[in-house]
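Standup, Tuesday
Yesterday: got the pipeline producing structure tokens again.
Today: sanity-check two examples.
Blockers: none.

Example 1:
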Amino acid sequence: MSRLAILQFLGILLFVSATSVQPSFPPGLLEGIDVEFDTEPHMFPSNWYCKRIHAEAMSLPREYRTRAMDILNQAIAKYPEEVLFINLRKVYVLQSLTFFGVPYGGTNFRDIVYLTYDHLNQKHTAEFMEGVFHHEFSSVLIRKFHRQLDREAWLAVNPGGFRYGEGGVQAIKNGEASLEFDANLHDLGFINKYSQSALEEDINVFAQNIFSGGSQFWLIVDSFDPIRKKTELIIRFYQLIDPVFTEEYFRSLAVSG
């Protein structure tokens, strides 16, 4: 089993290293967070194994684990340590995830994030994996800090009469789960088609992009008023979690990235 677990207690670090046949990752950004590349018994909630959801996963081959760890480090470096260590217990980085008979790029449960690094899929780049981390971790934070998110103000930005779809699962089944920007939707306040599938997915997509959307995302923010309003709301949510999360900070990520 390939695992990096670095526990910190009263300033004393105890390192549980990988075996000699596995890459050994240095301490640093992932202190206090368990990272797993292999599937495990009971790695999902028990109800995810039912016939309807039928959760399945494949371990990430060893030769891709160093690169996957680099990408994960890059993603979590954008958060203050306190935000990470209090709210994120474990990250699975796997070859594949399947639920409801369809492949997923990632998901989450409580304080666990599940990601895929699919080297066989050309669309699953390093940028894709990092974006999915921010997307899924935002759900973890939304559950814990739900009072800090102004959902009514968010819904008020949407066009009159708009109703979200049947959720992310159905969007994936319908082939409408692309996270690429869709210029036809920006003036309506949506970044892509997937963001129209559910309120939480809409919020997730904005969270993903303030962290990793790059200069193209901020050009969209500056060009479309509904996008601007939702961006202000998601930034406010993160700023209530930690004051470091200002608009200037998020814009700096696009420049430095």
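Example 2:
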Amino acid sequence: MFKFYGLLIAILATALTGCSELTLHREHRPEPIASFRSDGGGAPIRRIAVLPPYCNQQTASSVNDLEMTFQSELTKTSLFELVPITHAAMEMHFGYPQISSVDIIPGDLLFRLRSEYGVEGVMFIDITHYFPYGPISIGIRVKLVDATTGKIRWAFDHLFDSSNPTTSAEAQQFYLKNSHDNYPLPLDGSPILQSPTRFSKYVAYEVFRSLKNIPENPETSKVPVKSAD
């Protein structure tokens, strides 16, 4: 009888201990966030110039950290050969360190990138919002543009807000899957929800999860280009 009660107490203690931690299932991954893609005939893009992220809110160090994170996650897709273009290179070749995907781009920008770097596409990355304190939120707009035609081949625009329950849960799923930590997440908050560096990795992964190297659609819209005259 005493052994039975001892076993029952041990089981209850284990159950109560488990209630103090949050464990997320790793198996489920939802569909990527809705994004624009062009479909149709045409040659795939194999080599792209990745422009430095455009941001008018944060210091250079914050932007540099995000730039490395996004390049790393884009590289992991194995879709393209990447040619990173630095702020210094942009300044030297075009007279400005960065350009937004919604700006009217100079008429020779795509031509010069194609000629000097041998690229078939250009990727614009805009940091539309960045709040690195809890709750962390990052807004990203990305466009992949055909360097020959100026047509937008793929685009993504979304605000990742860690205070949103769905975003929070998915970020924690990402952390569990990619972290080397082998313990459950505590109820008082996951490390990824407290670190802008960790959270930005989740954001970059989600951005490029919907990216496919697909042929060009002749009906796809073009980016606005300023006349070279």
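Quick observation on example 2: Residues 2-19 form the longest helix (18 residues). The CA atoms of residues 101 and 215 lie 21 Å apart.
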